[in-house]
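pls design
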């Protein structure tokens, strides 16, 4: 079953086509990679799916229901969460407060800080490896942990689909390996993942399928093995 369907999405900024007739689907339980050169339109696609941007034309469906034009907060509450290319955390709040806010904003019933909400926050922080830093201010975390915090806050909204925007950018090889393991464990929790990433080791190792964009257009789609041997992708993006 497809959890996400994007059909003929177009988005122009003046004369620039940031997304041009983009079509793809994501099956429930998949990890799908979205790659391409800088400016290819990857984050624009995320913005269109998450409601941060309105498409000029085209349709986005989530679990078979059209969500094109819905506001971002409504899209979060039906089960789509995301992270951002530049980390967006509440820097002066504690680590646990950041995650608790995600819980209260997402699909949790009510708007009070309950014991179940606190318990879930503790569980998520333990899951992403931040339990020992729960009282630290978010701004005091190293980059790798700030990215983990953003993932934790997204998970607290109870997503069925998680959009990860360069969650491994700027990390050391050891941190990348840990991030790869986290992504796989998130999928094991039943969350479908679409990830934008330039770290090819990660994309090729953990993705079931890969979609390649260039100048806002989809130029290739397939398994990691198919993408790494695609002559057009090699010429435009991967190199020899």
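designed seq:
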């Amino acid at each position: 079953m497809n959890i996400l369907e994007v059909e003929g999405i177009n988005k122009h900024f003046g004369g620039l086509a940031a997304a041009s007739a983009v079509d793809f689907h994501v099956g429930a339980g998949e990890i799908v990679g979205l790659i391409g050169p800088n400016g290819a339109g990857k984050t624009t696609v995320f913005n269109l799916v998450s409601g941060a941007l309105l498409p000029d034309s085209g349709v986005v469906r989530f679990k078979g229901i059209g969500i094109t034009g819905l506001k971002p907060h409504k899209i979060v509450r039906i089960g789509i969460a995301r992270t951002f290319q530049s980390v967006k955390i509440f820097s002066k709040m504690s680590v646990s407060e950041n995650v608790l806010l995600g819980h209260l904003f997402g699909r949790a019933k009510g708007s009070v800080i309950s014991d179940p909400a606190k318990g879930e926050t503790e569980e998520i922080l333990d899951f992403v490896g931040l339990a020992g830093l729960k009282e630290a201010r978010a701004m005091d975390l190293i980059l790798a942990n700030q990215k983990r915090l953003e993932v934790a806050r997204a998970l607290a909204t109870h997503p069925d689909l998680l959009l990860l925007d360069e969650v491994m950018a700027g990390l050391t090889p050891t941190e990348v390996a840990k991030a790869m393991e986290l992504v796989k464990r998130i999928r094991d929790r039943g969350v479908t993942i679409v990830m934008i990433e330039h770290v090819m080791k990660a994309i090729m190792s953990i993705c079931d399928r890969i979609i390649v964009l260039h100048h806002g257009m989809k130029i290739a789609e397939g398994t990691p093995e198919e993408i790494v041997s695609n002559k057009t992708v090699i010429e435009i993006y991967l190199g020899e």
